[in-house]
Specification:
The protein is an alpha/beta fold. The chain has six helices and 15 strands. The strands form two sheets. Strands 7, 8, 9, 10, 11, 12, 13, 14 and 15 form a nine-stranded mixed beta sheet that branches. It has a six-stranded mixed beta sheet with strand order 1-2-3-4-5-6, with no helix packed on it.
Length: 278
């Protein structure tokens, strides 16, 4: 079972035996990029850590999973990240012992920055009970289709509102949409070079030991609220979803235009197509 931990950009997955806290896209070290451009912003790492520790203290999960993009640099690591990221996880380990990271597109060469007992999971994801989790810059594993609910990060969804004077307000949002499991299964089987034998359902079961259950997708907001995000409602109403990032969101398997958008406090804003047309 998936529960959104409103008003925080976090979620809890509960099974019969465990509680797993999910966050996505902390992008530790983003302010270093600003400093390189002459904009001096104090490290935001303590703020991220304090917010996360507060959640751990409040909800007492058994496990923490970060859905990718722990660090900001894509390939290399900035000098500040060599200090901030190890320090972040060492302090975090005092509050929760079981930590795992689903590798994101910013997490190349992350291993040297992590304590030995922090687990790295593949970008294609894993399942926690009936919830499949992945970062979003790559296709999920076909095995995740055996989960009713999929959860990803990567997009950093926000909505933008303009007032008559031209002022702009940006707010982080959760996105929730439906999936066409059979369409997604066909795409994933093709990506894996698996020939469909009989039905899609039978082929998925034979090769990946998964049922065809995926019906919904949640896109998490970034845990780093200083970072900003991608204004999903500024896409032209008649444009395709190719401007969204992540192959699943650009595919016909996700009903992106009818995504339900919620502010972090749970306020329902409407569907993406409605907000595009404002």
């Amino acid at each position: 079972m998936l529960n959104l931990l409103l008003p925080d950009p976090a979620a809890m997955v509960k099974t019969e035996k465990t509680k797993t806290l999910l966050i996505a896209d902390p992008h530790i070290g983003w302010e270093l990029e600003l400093q390189n451009k002459g904009i001096h912003v104090p490290s935001q790492t303590p703020k991220i850590l304090n917010k996360l520790v507060t959640l751990l203290s409040k909800y007492k999960p058994d496990r923490l999973v970060i859905l990718g993009d722990v660090k900001y640099t894509v390939v290399s690591s900035e000098l500040g990240e060599w200090q901030d990221i190890p320090d972040f996880f060492q302090k975090l380990k005092a509050h929760i012992d079981d930590i795992a990271i689903v590798r994101g597109n910013h997490d190349a060469n992350l291993e040297p920055l992590l304590p030995e007992n922090v687990k790295l999971l593949p970008a294609t994801g894993t399942n926690i009970g009936d919830v499949g989790i992945f970062h979003g810059h790559k296709w999920p594993s076909p095995a995740l289709l055996g989960c009713k609910t999929l959860v990803m990060g990567h997009l950093h969804p926000v909505v933008v509102f303009h007032d008559p004077t031209g002022c702009k307000m940006t707010q982080q949002v959760w996105m929730h949409t439906t999936l066409d499991a059979e369409v997604l299964a066909k795409i994933l089987l093709q990506k894996h070079g698996t020939k469909i034998e009989g039905s899609v359902k039978e082929t998925l079961q034979k090769h990946f030991h998964a049922a065809l259950k995926a019906t919904e997708l949640y896109v998490m907001p970034s845990f780093n609220d200083f970072l900003g995000g991608r204004p999903v409602n500024e896409i032209h109403p008649h444009a395709s979803n190719q401007t969204l990032i992540g192959p699943l969101l650009r595919s016909d398997a996700a009903n992106v235009d009818e995504s339900e958008l919620y502010l972090l406090d749970g306020t329902y804003l409407g569907t993406l197509s409605q907000l595009k047309n404002l």
